[in-house]
Design brief:
single chain, 519 residues, alpha/beta, Rossmann fold, four-stranded mixed sheet, 13 strands, TBL_N, golgi apparatus
């Protein structure tokens, strides 16, 4: 109860008589225009007036603090209503004394409403039981508690920022006794199954990301399925989005067996996959291959081609067709933009990147990347039909050794993470990360202004991924490919994607925290 209410507990002033100076007491008969019937309050008997006044005083003394507080508030409102009614009538004091407040036909409606309000107030104050006031007090306190809770709690984006998971270091975790899950029977790209493929060093499984100002706990698969029960998760973008989705599905399958509801593959890989965890979970996880998020023709469709034709204003299907049915969306795209390309918009060429063979203006790739990302977020915001989390991943760089060719067996053969002083985020990666952070912040601000149920977050993994050159498959791309024999000096390498289990599971640990932060 507020201190003000407590101070007024036994010092509430008694109301003044509700009558005009020199006029009749309210409730006495007045003259009504012909055809109008006023409802009068019975005049108290003169002999009982003193008794009723004493009775009312006793009732006031028994009322609770809330009773007095409510009474005083209504009393002040009544006085203000009287003053307003008198001012509205525009009569002088003498005329009011001679004729009364309600003797003029044109003021009859105002007086009638005032009389009804006052009668209701008198009944509420004098004839309601103390328990009624207690119930109103409880309701009032409940309202104040809810308002206080709402005002003091941080909204989901600010609550999420209480821990900056993007800054920290990798620490060796002796509690890790083996892989989080067995990828051998998981429905994922075989090149990511480093344990099955015989990668000899298992140290990459023991490193844990330690944020600078907080702790990051590992995702609990059973708890995660409860958290997202009945929801649809979508991973949209290039193969890093697919890499993360497949690792998540594999980990969740340790507690519930998923069904592969849809698979669409082409020569270059998996275009669209969907896994469903049936009842009681009702959770679906889908991957949408769209490396540039918009329509493109060239290297992304045919590796024999060396450049792209990118249509900046044509977002791709099928992910756009399903945007209204997504509850959690992870957008991960960036690796395909720093490639030679020609950009189209409104059917016209608007520029190129790294195409000296064409007499066109080189506009770089950061501008097109920003434009595509902005349109993607605007589209999701406009088409989302419920509470949706949109997590946009910053770029997770590869680790091809610049001193070696991409197909050298030691292109990414390091066996432990970099120390913080050993590696900085590359300038190009830092610029792409900046684009993501700025566009996510702008989308979040716009969604807040429109009060839409869409929450935008940055899944900022650039720094933590930069420090992990040991987390890639390298030459171990096929099951038991080099058992009992050395790796050839020239061999295909993957120094871009991540072993699963491995560092990619940290991406999902952070994603789980984001989902929790949003309630």
């Amino acid at each position: 109860m507020p201190a003000l209410a407590l101070a007024h507990d036994h010092h509430v002033s008694q109301p003044l008589p509700l009558r005009s100076p020199g006029g009749p007491r309210r409730g006495s008969p007045t003259t009504a225009p012909q055809g109008v019937h006023l409802r009068h309050t019975a005049q108290p008997q003169p002999g009982k007036e003193g008794h009723q006044r004493r009775h009312r005083r006793r009732r006031f003394a028994r009322q609770t603090t809330v009773h007095n507080y409510i009474y005083q508030s209504h009393y002040i409102s009544s006085r203000r209503l009287v003053a307003a009614a008198a001012s509205d009538m525009g009569e002088n004091t003498q005329e009011l004394a001679d004729h009364g407040l309600c003797s003029h036909p044109r003021k009859l409606l105002s007086c009638s409403l005032f009389a009804l309000f006052t009668l209701s107030l008198i009944y509420f104050i004098f004839y309601s039981s103390p328990s009624s006031f207690a119930s109103y007090a409880d309701l009032f306190d409940q309202f104040k508690t809810q308002r206080a809770t709402k005002n003091t709690s941080l909204p989901p984006p600010l609550a999420w920022l209480q821990c900056d998971y993007s800054d920290g270091k990798w620490v060796w975790d002796d509690s890790v006794t083996g892989p989080r899950y067995d990828s051998e029977n998981c429905d994922m790209k075989s090149t990511e199954k480093c344990v099955v493929n015989g990668k000899p060093d298992k140290g990459y499984l023991h490193w844990r990301w330690q944020p600078a100002g907080c702790n990051l706990t590992a995702l609990d698969p059973a708890g995660f399925l409860r958290l997202v029960r009945g929801k649809r998760l979508a991973f949209v973008g290039d193969s890093t989005a697919r890499n993360q989705a497949e690792a998540l599905v594999c980990y969740l399958s340790t507690v519930a067996r998923p069904e592969t509801a849809h698979r669409y593959e082409e020569r270059l890989g998996r275009k669209f996959w969907r896994w469903v965890f049936p009842a009681p979970h009702g959770v679906s996880v889908s991957t949408y291959w769209s490396p540039l998020l918009v329509r493109a023709e060239g290297h992304s469709e045919d590796y024999a081609m060396t450049q792209e034709a990118v249509v900046l204003d044509a977002l791709t299907e099928p992910w756009t067709a399903d945007a209204d049915a997504m509850d959690v969306v992870v957008v991960s795209a960036g690796h395909w933009f720093p490639r030679p390309a020609m950009y189209y918009e409104d059917g016209e060429v608007v520029g190129v990147y790294s195409r000296p063979d064409l007499n066109k203006t080189d506009i770089g790739y950061l501008g097109p990347y920003r434009k595509v990302l902005r349109r993607t977020l605007e589209y999701i915001s406009a088409n989302s039909t419920g509470d949706t989390l949109v997590a946009v991943a910053t770029i997770a760089p590869g680790h091809f050794d610049p001193g070696r060719s991409w197909n050298h067996r030691d292109a990414c053969s390091r066996t432990k993470p970099y120390e913080a002083v050993e590696a900085e985020v590359a300038a190009a990666d830092a610029e792409m990360r900046k684009v993501v952070l700025e566009e996510v912040a702008a989308a979040a601000a716009a969604a807040g202004r429109r009060r839409r149920g869409v929450r935008f977050e940055a899944l900022d993994v650039t720094r933590l991924a930069t420090l992990r050159p040991d987390g890639h498959p390298g030459p171990y791309l096929f099951a038991h490919a080099y058992d009992r024999r050395p790796v050839p000096e020239t061999v295909a390498n993957d120094c871009l994607h991540w072993c699963a289990p491995g560092l990619v599971d940290t991406f999902n640990d952070i994603l789980a925290k984001m989902i929790v932060a949003g309630g």
